Amino acid sequence: MLKGKTVLLGVTGSIAVYKICNLARMLTKMGCEVHVAMTPNSLNFVHPLTFETLTKNKCLIDTFDRNFEYSVEHVSIAKKADVVMIAPATANVIGKIAGGIADDMLTTTVMACTCPRIIAPAMNHNMLHDPIVQENIEKLRRHGYIIAEPVNGMLANGDIGDGKLPDEETLLEYILREAAFEKDLAGEKILVTAGATMESIDPVRFITNHSGGKMGVALARAAMLRGAEVTLVAAHMEIEPPMFTEVVNVKSAADMFDAVRERLENCDIIIKAAAVADYTPATTSDSKIKKSVGGLTIELKRTTDILKYIGEHKRDGQIVCGFSMETENLEENSRKKLFSKNADMICANSLRTAGAGFGTDTNVITLITPEETVQLGMMSKFDAANIILSKIIELKKR
């Protein structure tokens, strides 16, 4: 996702700098060109050779270093960078940047950058909550800096409190959000449903299915990385929801229906990727269906058809995309669903196809619109999600 991108990491004098060594390694493994700017105090915690070995680039430390090729080095790197992250960011460097002070290579370079700039504070709990430090952080935020919020945990002095630098995976997500993709979905509000709903039969047993939510999460994450404002309505999932999305946790089909209905009017794109249980226990007034479940005969009724409701109530300009899991006649059955649900696109896959369906990291999808059928090969669910989103963008432009 970061191949061909340039990331500038700024490190300061904090014990948490050890995490950035791993972050630099993660970035280079993704094909990213990584440069590191170090404050003089950071040299007390990590040697520049560590970063130079990991990134294959000389560290920026001395503003007047004569060993560089002739160029104004801080301006040169500032022009190349697609994103800057200062992590860990001490109270000292936060105060300098907030006050417009550029007295070392790191602060000079950061202030010359026009790309997104991320600040990840790391310090003692009491220092973090000092009013002046908080004012400086808020000032940076007002001026467009992105703040990677510190987390609560054990700090370097053994205290438990705020001020801990987030883990490397979290810091990487901040960088990916800014630099991984073109923001072709900026301004779009997207609602994605994911996971498996659960219908309680009694206090112990329930009806559900094998969906783990991976396809829905891939769609939500891809949409977020492409600039959309994403709401994920999540039933039971075997995967964590993506960062930077609003997550609405639900359990039953009725819960999911209510969550979708409440948000339907404010969404530009709705993608129903959740696997909704077909039946729920019936009440005395319901039209009942008797089924044997695990040797127990119970009275059931069909759950609300969420995709059909969305299609019947979609407004002008909204795009509705559904999923169809088939065991036979994939295209025929999915095309019927496309029209009966009044959807704009159906993403169909077969349980009989290797690498598709529940529990896998891959999928084999057929995209069905009123005008065409596009068969995709086997690929990761994240790659499939991006193709689906690109097709949705195409549909919106028609």
Strand line-up of the largest beta sheet = 12-11-8-13-17-18-20-21
Number of alpha- plus pi-helical segments: 13
- Under CATH, the topology of the largest domain can be stated as Rossmann fold
Output the CATH homologous superfamily of the largest domain. Answer: CoaB-like
Shape: elongated
CATH-level-2 architecture of the largest domain: 3-Layer(aba) Sandwich
List keywords for this structure.
single chain; about 400 residues; alpha/beta; Rossmann fold; eight-stranded mixed sheet; about 35% helix
In words, what does this structure look like?
- This protein is α/β, with parallel strands linked by helices and 398 residues long.
- It folds into two domains: 6-179, Rossmann fold (3-Layer(aba) Sandwich), CATH 3.40.50.1950; 189-397, Rossmann fold (3-Layer(aba) Sandwich), CATH 3.40.50.10300.
- 33% of the residues lie in helices and 25% in strands.
- The chain is built from 13 helices and 22 strands.
- The protein has helices spanning 18-29, 48-55, 73-80, 91-98, 105-111, 125-128, 131-142, 168-179, 214-225, 253-263, 306-313, 330-340, 381-397; strands at residues 6-11, 33-38, 83-89, 117-121, 146-147, 151-154, 160-164, 189-194, 199-200, 206-207, 229-234, 246-249, 269-272, 279-281, 289-293, 296-302, 319-326, 345-350, 362-363, 366-368, 373-375, 379-380.
- The strands form six sheets. The chain has an eight-stranded mixed sheet with strand order 12-11-8-13-17-18-20-21, with helices on both faces. Strands 2-1-3-4-5 form a five-stranded parallel sheet, sandwiched between helices. A three-stranded antiparallel sheet has the order 14-16-15, with no helix packed on it.
- β9 (199-200) and β10 (206-207) form a beta hairpin.
- α1 (18-29) crosses α8 (168-179), α3 packs across α5 (105-111) and α4 (91-98) packs across α7.
- The model has no long low-confidence stretch (mean pLDDT 91).
